[in-house]
Amino acid sequence: MPKITQQQKEAVRSDILKAARSVFIEKGYEAASMKDIVARSGRSFGGVYLYYSNKEDVFLDLLRRQFEDMAENFAPDKPMSAWEAFERFLGEQEKRAREAVGGLAPCMFEYLIVGRRDANRRSLIEERHRAVYGSMFALVQDGLRRGEFQPSKSVETFVHWLVSFLDGIFLESIMTGAERIELAGQFELLLSVCRSILMPLGKEESK
Amino acid sequence: MPKITQQQKEAVRSDILKAARSVFIEKGYEAASMKDIVARSGRSFGGVYLYYSNKEDVFLDLLRRQFEDMAENFAPDKPMSAWEAFERFLGEQEKRAREAVGGLAPCMFEYLIVGRRDANRRSLIEERHRAVYGSMFALVQDGLRRGEFQPSKSVETFVHWLVSFLDGIFLESIMTGAERIELAGQFELLLSVCRSILMPLGKEESK
Amino acid sequence: MPKITQQQKEAVRSDILKAARSVFIEKGYEAASMKDIVARSGRSFGGVYLYYSNKEDVFLDLLRRQFEDMAENFAPDKPMSAWEAFERFLGEQEKRAREAVGGLAPCMFEYLIVGRRDANRRSLIEERHRAVYGSMFALVQDGLRRGEFQPSKSVETFVHWLVSFLDGIFLESIMTGAERIELAGQFELLLSVCRSILMPLGKEESK
Amino acid sequence: MPKITQQQKEAVRSDILKAARSVFIEKGYEAASMKDIVARSGRSFGGVYLYYSNKEDVFLDLLRRQFEDMAENFAPDKPMSAWEAFERFLGEQEKRAREAVGGLAPCMFEYLIVGRRDANRRSLIEERHRAVYGSMFALVQDGLRRGEFQPSKSVETFVHWLVSFLDGIFLESIMTGAERIELAGQFELLLSVCRSILMPLGKEESK
DNA sequence: AATGAATGAGGATTCATTCAT
DNA sequence: CATGAATGAATCCTCATTCAT
């Protein structure tokens, strides 16, 4: 019978992750040391290692929760057309790209790229890819089902293409800066391209 | 009067870089140690430090040469229309993306992302960005001058957009694999999108 | 709440310093390596670096404590005339010079001379100079105040002169050996010279 | 049959030493590297190692020549009283002390102190000590023989005492600076003290 | 459950000296 | 004689992780 409840345990984890998050964002994944995390969390080495067995473990939990939060927010809360949903989705991505620099995303890229050979990280990469691909695919599929979209191209390819673009714009935002790369303009352009792919015959709707 | 000629010196450098390249590709930038490079080059620590003052120095020389090689290959060797040149360029990029996994590109991403806070690396990022942006911009500009292209969108935004996409497709190729993401299909799609942006009024040429 | 008390911490420091001291004395400052200190202290690298961040840090703490010990011993514990105090002081110096060879003093000279260009060490030199000069100046000043001393020469110059001599005799003791340079005789001579400078009119007291 | 004459050999040595001297003065003995010496001499490693087998060898030759030069200059070139010679000698020492900072003396101290355990350096220390002691002893002896000096103290002790003082004042000049320690005043004081020791009955001569 | 002192392998870098040319 | 490229042992220092308390 554990002396502390599951809730307390969760509270500690969340506490550690909060500290870890700020350390990772500030220093990057590689440069962040357990010492930093321990110090910022106001705990001891033992105290942290009791909940996480190493730096990677901490980071993965952080990522997992990030994903969960994202998924939660993603559910459309009001009825809308498939295109509106798609638009909203891209809008969301634009916002995320814009805010990426100060967030965990650069760390995640770093983590995944540095560890691209590691089996565990590879599976995380795949999982993440599948998740992004899947959610976009669902959006398009929805439009197809409704008859809104009549894509002139293979849907699979189109979605891959979209994923590539979003990854790229994330990377560019992080490395070069959102302003510098005309983030807003790029998304506008993307939107119009997507419309002409998904709804090639559709009358131009006012944006 | 130097004991070894500039050519021999260059041969040694090239020898070291060859070893370093394979180490970097195999282990990644962070995980590679000078010890690895020294061992694989069949030289001594001193022998390597005689030519390069640290791991970063080795890597940067490797990158620099990579860039130079790329630039050399880029010069179009026969007269062609702007669109043909553009097509060729994208074809080249596709080939490079396909070959990226086994090459130095993943390391470069790693190097740049891990060091995104470092001033020197930031300037390398900018330089690289400018180079890629510049060469694409030139291609489009050429088409404009010739009257081949009548882009319906801002050229600057379009080029930024293209850069983002290429970065993204590189990243995806590296992380998820060219086959998995339907690399060829993506480039085909990209090509057709670019055509409709650059030559919105043009008759559809059979691809 | 620290796991080990300040006292234990101090005990570890003192333990490391004891080891370091013997290494420094045996090998000299330059020749001593952290590896030596680590080995002799029976600890690990990390264990030593936990308390001191490098060789110099260890050495400076060693020096600092040496100075403190010296200062403690210096307080005259019984009432005496200024001349008696002066005599005692010189006696103390003689003893220290005699014991210098087997102590830390040679290392300190080494440290200061080798690093004579380094700003930090320069300030240590000055500090040390001021301390020695100051304590001697105080002794003479005391005699002046009491009317015991009527020096025929500038007090400042005399004290500088004394410092030089003491430094020299230290150096000679270390390098050539106390016996060889007739340390005792030199101090006797110095004492009589000082008396005739400080109390030129005084009746000769039998030594 | 050597291909180069002894003279040429000597010229090369002198050339190397000139470079070495400036390196040693600039960086200090420990900090100077063979690479520095090789570079400044405009020669190659092999070229230097052909004449000197290591850094110490270079330095010792430098010292030896320094001593020889000093000895040459020391011969009094005109007849004078023993006291005048003594005075001149001290004057010479004052000048040397004043110029010590920019010369080889700091290096020599460094070399001797750092290597105080090394048998070869110890013998150099002794040799140097004997030389200094000997030349001073000769001066005093000369005064005794002429009947000029009637020292009230043991001549041996007095000379040791003088050597200590000179060593000390050298050290202080190097470390603290000639101005700071009132070099001139110290020598004046020393002179008057010496006079009263060597010629206790003599009438005070106006300085 | 929590602490935090201690571990020690591992990585980067230097430099006196050698030796093939 | 002269060169200078090459050697590699030696040094410093960090940091993820453990474990006695």
UniProtKB/TrEMBL annotation, chains A, B, C, D:
Record SUPFAM superfamilies: Homeodomain-like, Tetracyclin repressor-like, C-terminal domain
Ranges in coiled-coil conformation: none
DNA-binding region ranges: 33-52
Organism superkingdom: Bacteria
Record-level Gene Ontology MF annotations: DNA-binding transcription factor activity; transcription cis-regulatory region binding
InterPro entries in UniProt: Homeodomain-like_sf, HTH-type_TetR-like_transc_reg, HTH_TetR, Tet_transcr_reg_TetR-rel_C_sf, YfiR_C
Any Pfam family: TetR_C_17
Keywords: DNA-binding
Domain HTH tetR-type: 10-70
Entry-linked PANTHER family: HTH-TYPE TRANSCRIPTIONAL REGULATOR RUTR, TRANSCRIPTIONAL REGULATOR, TETR FAMILY
Identification of the protein by name: TetR/AcrR family transcriptional regulator
Organism lineage string: Bacteria, Bacillati, Bacillota, Bacilli, Bacillales
